[in-house]
Amino acid sequence: MSLGYNKESLKLKYLEIFMAFRIKNYGVKGSGSLAGGLKGGQRRPLLSLLFSSNQIEVEHVLKSVTYVIAGLAYLSVCRYIGLGYSGLFIALIVLSVYLEYGKGYFVPRWVVNTLSVAVLVLSFYRVYTEDLLEPTVEALAILLGVKFLEEKKFRDYMQIYMISVFMLTGSALLSIDFIFMVFFTLIFFLVATAIVLLTYHTESPSLRLDKDSLYKIIGRSMLIPLVSVPLTVLIFLILPRTNFHFLGFLGRASVGRGGFADNVLLGDVSNIQLDSSVIFRAQMIEPVSNDQLYWRGIVFDHFDGVAWKFEDQETVWTLNNMPIQGKMVRQTIYLEPYGSRYLFTLDKPIIVYYRNVTLYKGFVVMARQDIKSRLRYDAVSILPVRDYSVKDDETRFLQLPNDLSPDIIALAKTITAGMGKKQSMEALVGYLRDGQYKYSLEKLPQSSTPLVDFLFKQKYGNCEYFASALAVMLRASGISANVVGGYKGGVYNSVGGYYIVLQKNAHVWVEAYLKDTGWVRLDATPAAPQEMAADDRKMFPKARLIFDSINYIWNSLVINYNLDKQLSLFQKVHDSIRLKGVDLSFRRFKPAVVVVVIVAVIFILFKLYRLVLNRRPVEVRLIARFTAVLKGYGYERLSSQGLEEFVLTIQEDGLRSAAGAFVLDFERIYYKDKPFTRDDIKHLNAQLSQIRRERKEKENKKGGGAAPPSTPPARGPVPLTPL
Question: Most buried of the four, 110, 454, 504, 703, by CB within 10 Å?
Answer without folding.
Answer: 454
